[in-house]
Amino acid sequence: GLPRPLAVEILILLAKSFVSTRCVNYFPLMTLSSQNLVLRSHLENLINQAFPVDEGCCGWRLNTSSPTEISLTAGEPSAESSVAFSVATPLAFLDRVAGELTLYFRKPTLDGQVSKLSDLAAQMSCLLACKNLEAAVLLDIEVANQKAAHADFNWYGIYRVEGSDLLLTSFRGAPSPHIKIPTDAGICGAAVRENRTLNIDDVGADPRYLSCSLETKSELVVPIRDSAGHAIAEIDIDAHKLSAFSPELVALVEGFAGRLMPLVVKLQ
Predict the structure, then answer these.
(1) 106 — phi, psi (to 5°)?
(2) Measured between alpha carbons, how far is 57 from 105 in angstroms, rounded to an integer?
(3) Cβ(169)–Cβ(267) below 8 Å
(4) pLDDT digits (tens, 9 = 90+) for 33-82
(5) Is the dihedral of CA 75, 80, 83, 85 positive or negative?
(6) What's the pLDDT score for residue 243?
(7) Which of 234, 240, 196 is nearest to 219 (CA)?
(8) What is the pLDDT of residues 123-153, one digit of tens each?
């Protein structure tokens, strides 16, 4: 079964579906699959974090058509409600628009809120491109927890292997231009090909580095291996200082990679 912390997260997500403080017109519980129930609760948590209630966000709607058709709503306004306006953003992955996320506000938003919505849409697009949404949500929770627990992790992501490419599956930090990386390119590709951890103290001195932020100074890439020892995914972490990853921190992330393996297997 799943490690205890992940099983607990599932129960928490399901419980929150009953007690959300913002959502007033959820679909009836029995009409939703467990996959959609977990996804809806996770999305609600992400929106609560990005848009506190006092910023005026009063509801949202998610519609997707690919790879899975999903229609979820929470607190969607009626004709009588006092909604100032709505903001919609497409959910796109690898140049394919798979759906749309719409947020409703009772008061005007600031430019920073629009930027936060774009960041949220980028995170959701990666998640929704996965075949097993329940496993993808739990993986996303783990990524968020690890990023939050380590101040030196300025960008934290998971790439999964699909054919000859690495596909971004979950991340925290600024949206990355590298959604897909060939396994024969970059430090990320080298870690999978060589099936070993790469701890790069100075990315500027490594010709394999694929630049995505001028602030990145060092990078740690740790393979996630299946039961046969094959690299099926990887953890990629960027830091804004040189030599950011001590041997102790590397060992910690390698242990975390082993913990994530059952979830990554479910994504294949």
Answers:
(1) -90, -15
(2) 4
(3) yes
(4) 777 888 889 998 998 888 876 667 888 899 988 667 888 888 756 555 66
(5) positive
(6) 97
(7) 240
(8) 999 999 998 999 999 999 999 999 999 998 9
Polymer length in residues for the chain? 268
Report how far residue 157's alpha carbon sits from residue 140's, in angstroms, rounded to the nearest whole number.
9
Cα separation, 87 vs 113, in Å, equals: 10
Cα separation, 92 vs 96, whole angstroms: 5
- The candidate with the shortest Cα–Cα distance to 71, out of 61, 60, 59, is 61
